[in-house]
From TrEMBL:
It comes from Zea mays (Maize). GO terms for molecular function: glycerol-3-phosphate O-acyltransferase activity. The lineage of its organism: Eukaryota, Viridiplantae, Streptophyta, Embryophyta, Tracheophyta. SMART domains: PlsC. It comes from the Eukaryota. This is glycerol-3-phosphate 1-O-acyltransferase.
Length: 335
């Protein structure tokens, strides 16, 4: 049985022939998701524009206009109505005391407790800058929910199969991840460029075709940011995209609750394949199973798969200090 055709290869530059007749801003036919951090709300409007232009240029879009390009859509900052997380809301002092209590009782490993407490303060400081009058309550609710999920997984660890489907019930891990990242994004200054491409993708997907998205990987929040900025215009894509995930996001106790809410093809990075010689064979067998699962998905059609081929984030040029997209050539050589 042959796999359905691959009809969209997003993330690459458009052909030179097409680009030559267009302005630098519109010449790139790649979809661009530009998410502004919530903290930018406090900056001057001019600074916001400079940040947005810099972000666009980093994606290869060239010099941008003063407003989002034609074909871009502003993302909505209105969240989903569903509320996730524990029913009882702790205050800050109670939450920190609970974390330390579970550590002292041996139910939470010391390193996990330390990282969770550090995450709390980092998350709190970031969310409180977004200008929402309810920011503190939102932050506390989200962190209480995360603490609850981390503690549950430590006591009863979840094991990810080669192909993992998002867990939506009895607890909706997808909405948990969406609502946790939501207050970190400044939706009023974030937008999706060339939104029509996503409409075309969805149409092809419903026809049974497969689509592969290739992009640079910035943070572990990439899946949530992609889904958040498309949840109003293309909710089907937001909920059905499959991410190729490295082993850390399916083993780290603080990452696992977020990963459980995404559709994942789980792989071991070639870069770290030899870190522990006794695990090399196990990792290879696992990667083989993951490739077989991906092949089965593609044969069935209507699959949207997101891959970060360089497996890492953009890095600054050592000599100039300027940031540039991670080199994808290395990944192709490894295939």
């Amino acid at each position: 049985m042959h796999a359905p055709p691959l009809v969209a290869f997003a993330g690459g530059a458009c052909p030179a022939s097409a680009a030559s007749s267009l302005s630098p801003w519109l010449a790139s036919l790649r979809p661009a998701i530009v998410a502004a951090p919530a903290r930018l709300l406090w900056f001057r409007r001019g600074a916001l524009r400079l940040e947005a232009k810099a972000a666009w240029r980093a994606t290869g879009g060239g010099r941008g206009p003063r407003v989002p390009a034609k074909g871009a859509v502003l993302a909505s900052y209105m969240g989903a109505e569903e509320v996730v997380g524990p029913l009882s809301l702790l205050d800050e002092e109670e939450l920190i005391l609970h974390i330390r209590k579970e550590r002292d009782n041996g139910k939470l490993p010391a390193d996990v407790a330390i990282n969770l407490e550090e995450l709390y303060y980092n998350y709190r400081n970031a969310v409180l800058q977004n200008g929402d009058p309810n920011a503190y309550e939102i932050m506390l609710s989200n962190m209480t929910a995360l603490f609850d999920r981390v503690l549950l997984d430590v006591q009863n660890p979840f094991t990810f199969p080669p192909y993992h489907k998002a867990v939506r019930e009895p607890f909706d891990y997808y909405m948990f991840g969406q609502n946790y990242i939501r207050p970190l994004v400044d939706f009023r200054n974030s937008y999706v460029g060339n939104i029509s491409l996503f409409h075309d993708m969805e149409e092809k997907l419903h026809q049974g075709h497969n689509v592969v998205l290739m992009s640079n990987h910035q943070t572990e929040a990439d899946p949530a940011i992609i889904a958040l900025l498309l949840e109003k215009t293309n909710p089907w894509i937001s909920e059905n995209i499959v991410y190729v995930a490295g082993d850390r996001v399916v083993t780290d106790p603080l990452c696992k609750p977020f990963s459980m809410g995404r559709n994942l093809i789980c792989v071991y990075s070639k870069k770290h394949m030899n870190d522990f010689p006794e695990l090399i064979e196990m990792k290879r067998r696992s990667n083989t199973r993951s490739l077989k699962e991906m092949a089965l998905l593609l044969r069935g059609g209507s699959q949207l798969i997101w891959i970060a081929p360089s497996g890492g984030r953009d890095r600054p040029n050592p000599s100039t200090g300027e940031w540039y997209p991670a080199n994808e050539t290395r990944w192709y050589r490894q295939l």
